[in-house]
Automatic annotation (TrEMBL):
GO terms for molecular function: endonuclease activity. Homodimer. Binds to stalled ribosomes, contacting rRNA. Keywords: ATP-binding, Coiled coil, DNA-binding, Endonuclease, Hydrolase, Nuclease, Nucleotide-binding, RNA-binding, rRNA-binding. This is Endonuclease MutS2. The keyword Plastid does not apply. It comes from Bacillus suaedaesalsae.
Length: 786
């Protein structure tokens, strides 16, 4: 892409926003290197990587990228034998720790069976160097000091230093505390000069202490003297400090050599961490702009749904639908210079550059973006003072360069084409330029305020008019793009609103040609029809929404009714069973009592009479004994049921059609617009439609497709299961179900956890819980929709 195009479309400003989402200086540096690709395969790959990062951020919330430092120079210096400083070693240790954390994070994602092919590939190449990290941390402290633990020799030297310092201080404290010497001191303190302990002595007593003079005050009244009694101690102290420095140097050399051994691995890790940081910078930026992944194509087709300019605050920007490259390859945006046209040009150009840079777009899902080898933009006031060129001349210089290079793989953006010269000649030139670019096969969007170009879109195949809506009441543009409607002049309406004499306005109208008036009236009619159509569309959408809400509520009530009815049936069955058992026990007790009476009292009761009595007891409640589980009258089906049969649902006294068998003794029944499960014993066969020859129909989706109230994922692979959950939830929502169940089993818990996390983060899920003990416990997740 031309650097001038990147500048005009403010591509660098997008990169500035993007760099704020990088976690390290390496990531920011990588952002600055970003340029749009002209390779279709590379653009698709970059978009997939960004989408993977955005998905991980949505599921996990963050990625542990803190602590990454730019250690490339340190690693390279260690390879040529340089000694690294403690702070440089600390940066290496920090980067090693970050490498370990990122690798661990990626492994956890794999354990959770998340599909992350690009991040997984990076993770496999990362090399954890725990031993080197431990060695550095064992030797270097958080503030860059070499620790006593670095070596036994260093520990011994530092203990010796403490002893010598203590001895020197004791000697000097004895001197400054002596009453005989206090009058000779400027101040009773011990200080250091030239790395030696000294005391401040008045000038006139310099000979009283002997030793060496190391410094004096500015006035010369005070001398800093090292008394003879501590000279030897200070000498030994300095020798010991020299040994300390030598040992520290030896330790740093040793650590630097350890770094040199792993220098190539360090450089490899830094490169991988840079790409990971860059990848998640784009994912994080996508969340900020509420972006979505565009579908890339290499046929030059652009379809942007509710596109927003990423550099305009989200609460101020007006979303627009823009399509180019299928039914028409040129858009001519006409109308006065009231704002919005240039923004539209920059929006399309900038989103093209972003898509080819692997950035998601601030649009709704379902947007598409074509690949272009070149994006040319002639936008803004290009008047050149240095070259003494007018605005028109400067524009023409750019346009001449564009026309030399433009081809079928180009996107061309012209702002105020032909402006800055005679209107008649400018309009003719604009038409000629647009024809030339169109013939070369390029995609082009041009803005102009010339009325002659309003008819251009009607007279040229592959060209369409557009305009930016203007609100005459507020005297300001709404920034809403109207595809297919040319712009109209609002000069008379604006002047009238501002108070211009009506006579002046009417006189002005007389100077407008009849053709211009016809065009203006045609545009006004188009705008009126569009507003009416939009109003009716909005009303229809509201009615459809109300209808869907009513259907969902009715569906919910029917399901709740069936559940309540089934619970009542179950309770009735339990009570009936209890009553039967109780009657049997009572009968047995009576018979036992009669036998006992027979034996004890020599009654004349016969055995066959006892058997007959028991039989009568059993027959006393034949309906309960024979139909324990049937709350409705028994129905003997004379026909074997098949899908499509017309049946009567006995409990509801309603007719319906069988859709499919959903169990051994249960069917899915369509009753009007509703679908419900009904037990076979509650169905009565009515009729069977005669087969007729039909042509194949398209697959029915949405509310006309059968959706079960539960989804069984047992035995599924993790990735396949989540895809099925996603589709199932969409189908259930379309079917209007208020509540569904997902059976995932208990197993290792990975699938269960993944399903729980996915449904809880779904925008349409109101509540998700594990099933009750009677529902399947933790082996099932019950979802309630909003």
């Amino acid at each position: 892409m031309l650097d001038r195009t990147l500048k005009v479309l403010e591509y660098e400003k997008v990169k500035e926003q993007l760099s704020k989402h990088a976690s390290s200086s390496l990531g920011k540096e990588r952002v600055q290197q970003l340029k749009p690709t002209i390779s279709y395969e590379e653009a698709v790959k970059w978009q997939d990587m960004t989408d993977e990062a955005a998905t991980i951020l949505r599921l996990k919330g963050h990625v542990p990228l803190g602590g990454i430092k730019d250690i490339r120079a340190f690693a390279k210096r260690s390879k040529i034998g340089s000694t690294l400083s403690p702070y440089e070693l600390l940066d290496i240790s920090s980067t090693l720790y970050a490498t370990k954390q990122v690798k661990k994070f990626i492994e956890e994602l794999l354990e959770e069976e998340l599909t992350t092919p690009y991040l997984q590939k990076y993770g496999e190449k990362l090399i954890v160097l725990s031993d080197l990290e431990k060695k550095i941390n064992f030797c270097i402290g958080e503030n860059g000091e070499v620790l006593d633990s670095a070596s036994e020799k260093l520990r011994g030297i530092r203990q010796q230093l403490k002893t010598l310092e203590s001895r020197a201080r004791e000697k000097l404290e004895g001197i400054i505390r002596s009453s005989s010497t206090q009058k000779m001191l400027s101040d009773a303190i011990i200080t250091i000069r030239n790395d030696r302990y000294v005391i401040p002595v008045k000038q006139e007593y310099r000979s009283a202490f002997g030793g060496m003079i190391h410094d004096q005050s500015a006035s010369g009244a005070t001398l800093f003297i090292e008394p003879q009694s501590v000279v030897e101690i200070n000498n030994t102290l300095n020798e010991t400090k020299l040994k300390e420095r030598q040992e520290i140097e030896r330790i740093l050399i040793e650590l630097s050599s350890e770094v040199a051994v792993e220098a190539d691995n360090l450089l490899n890790n830094v490169s991988l961490l840079t790409e990971i940081d860059f990848m998640f910078s784009k994912g994080s930026y996508s969340h900020k702009i509420k972006g979505s992944k565009p579908k890339m194509n290499n046929v030059g087709y652009i379809k942007l749904k509710k596109a927003r300019h990423p550099l305009i605050p989200i609460d101020e920007v007006v979303p627009n639908d823009i399509e180019l490259g299928k039914d028409f390859t040129s858009i001519v945006i006409t109308g006065p210079n009231t704002g919005g046209k240039t923004v539209t040009l920059k929006l399309v150009g900038l989103l093209t550059l972003m898509a080819q840079s692997g950035l998601q777009l601030p649009t709704l899902d379902g947007s598409e973006m074509g690949m272009f080898e070149s994006v040319y933009a002639d936008i803004g006031d290009e008047q050149s003072i240095e070259q003494s060129l007018s605005t028109f001349s400067s524009h023409m210089v750019n346009i001449v360069e564009i026309l030399k290079k433009v081809d079928a793989n180009s996107l061309v953006l012209f702002d105020e084409l032909g402006a800055g010269t005679d209107p008649g000649e400018g309009a003719a030139l604009a038409i000629s330029i647009l024809d030339y670019v169109y013939q070369r096969g390029a995609r082009v969007i041009a803005t102009t305020h010339y009325p002659e170009l309003k008819a251009y879109g009607y007279n040229r195949q592959g060209v369409i008019n557009a305009s930016v809506e203007f609100d005459v009441e507020t005297l300001s543009p709404t920034y809403k793009l109207l595809i297919g409607v040319p712009g109209r002049s609002n000069a008379f309406e604006i002047s009238k609103r501002l108070g211009l004499n009506p006579d002046v306005i009417e006189q002005a109208r007389l100077h407008i040609s009849a053709e211009s008036n016809q065009v203006e009236n045609m545009i006004a009619s188009l705008e009126e029809n569009r507003r009416n159509a939009e109003s009716e569309l909005e009303e229809a959408r509201e009615l459809r929404k109300q209808s869907e809400d009513l259907q969902k509520e009715l569906q919910k009530q029917i399901i709740e009714f069936n559940e309540k009815r089934d619970r009542m049936y179950e309770k009735a069955e339990e009570k009936a069973a209890e009553a039967i058992e109780k009657a049997k026990h009572e009968a047995e007790d009576i018979i036992k009592q009669l036998r006992r009476m027979q034996k004890e009292q020599y009654s004349t009761i016969k055995d066959h009479e006892l058997i007959e009595a028991r039989k009568r007891l059993e027959e006393s409640s034949p309906h309960l004994l024979k139909n324990k589980k049937s709350p409705v009258s028994a129905n003997k089906l004379t026909e074997k049921l098949s899908p499509g049969d017309e049946v009567k649902v006995i409990s509801l006294n309603q007719k319906g059609h069988l859709l499919e068998r959903v169990g051994d003794k249960e069917w899915q029944v369509q009753i009007g617009v509703m679908k419900m499960k009904v037990k076979e014993k509650n169905l009565e066969y009515m009729s069977r439609p005669k087969p007729i020859e039909t042509k194949p129909l398209a697959t029915v989706r949405g509310n006309d497709a059968h959706v079960k109230l539960e989804l069984d994922l047992r035995g599924e692979r993790y990735e396949d299961a989540l895809l099925k959950v996603e589709k199932y939830i969409d189908d259930a929502l379309l079917a209007g179900y208020p509540r569904v169940s997902i059976i995932h089993g208990k197993g290792t818990g990975a699938l269960r956890k993944g399903v729980q996390e996915y449904v809880k983060n779904h925008r349409s899920v109101k509540k998700a819980r594990y099933g009750e003990a009677s529902e399947g416990g933790t082996g099932i997740t019950v979802i309630e929709f909003k």
